[in-house]
């Protein structure tokens, strides 16, 4: 299964870029991953740009403060279930400062909240990369996660 992370904002020189690079390189040992960066001057423009990169067969997870709170084990289980369903692509969507537009929200298969707090979208990239890496190590039974 391939993971694609679609995020708003700039591709280089953002807060937490070093964390993203570190955990993305670790994640690559478990499954193929890629990042897509989109921009727009409004939520509508960002959503249209995102939709251009969302595959019709992909399982889509959006990160939104109104989504479901899940644990690291829950995320690992979500990935395992998608693998068992023979899902070939899973897209994680990180919206910008004004959130995610209705078009993308309606396409989502799952809405996940990292926290009840609101984080800068650039910081969320690092949190997501680490969470995905952690989920992969849980699924492999490795010692990174200490439950």
Word description of this protein:
Strands 2-1-4-3-5 form a 5-stranded parallel beta sheet. By secondary structure, it is an alpha/beta fold. The longest helix has 20 residues, at 121-140. Helix 1 runs parallel beside helix 5 (121-140) and helix 3 (72-84) packs across helix 5. The protein has 5 helices and 5 strands; from the N terminus they run βαβαβαβαβα.
Terminal Cα span: 25 Å
Name the overall outline. globular
Question: What is the number of helical segments per DSSP (H or I, 4+ residues)?
Answer: 5
Calculate Rg over CA atoms: 14 Å
**What order do the strands of the largest sheet run in, or round the barrel if closed?**
2-1-4-3-5
Biggest sheet: strands, sense, closure? 5 strands, parallel
> What structural class do helix, strand and pairing data support?
alpha/beta
Short description:
By secondary structure, this protein is of the alpha/beta class. It has helices at 17-27, 43-51, 72-84, 102-107, 121-140, and strands spanning 2-8, 33-38, 59-69, 89-94, 110-113. Strand 1 (2-8), helix 1 and strand 2 form a beta-alpha-beta unit.
What is the topology?
Layout: E1 2-8, H1 17-27, E2 33-38, H2 43-51, E3 59-69, H3 72-84, E4 89-94, H4 102-107, E5 110-113, H5 121-140
Parallel strand pairs: 1-2, 1-4, 3-4, 3-5
Tags for this model:
5 helices, 5 strands, 5-stranded parallel sheet, 147 residues, globular, alpha/beta, single chain
């Amino acid at each position: 299964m391939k993971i694609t992370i679609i995020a708003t904002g700039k591709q280089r020189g953002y807060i937490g870029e070093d964390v993203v690079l570190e955990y993305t390189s670790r994640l690559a040992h478990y499954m193929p991953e890629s990042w897509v960066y989109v921009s727009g001057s409004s939520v509508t423009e960002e959503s249209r740009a995102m939709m251009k990169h969302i595959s019709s067969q992909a399982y889509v997870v959006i990160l939104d403060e109104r989504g479901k709170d899940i644990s690291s084990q829950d995320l690992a289980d979500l990935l395992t279930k998608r693998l068992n369903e023979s899902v070939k692509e899973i897209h994680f969507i990180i919206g910008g400062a004004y959130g995610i537009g209705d078009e993308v929200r309606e396409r989502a298969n799952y809405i996940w909240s990292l926290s009840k707090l609101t984080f800068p979208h650039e910081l969320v990239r690092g949190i997501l990369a680490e969470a995905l890496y952690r989920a992969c190590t849980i699924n492999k039974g490795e010692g990174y996660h200490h439950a």
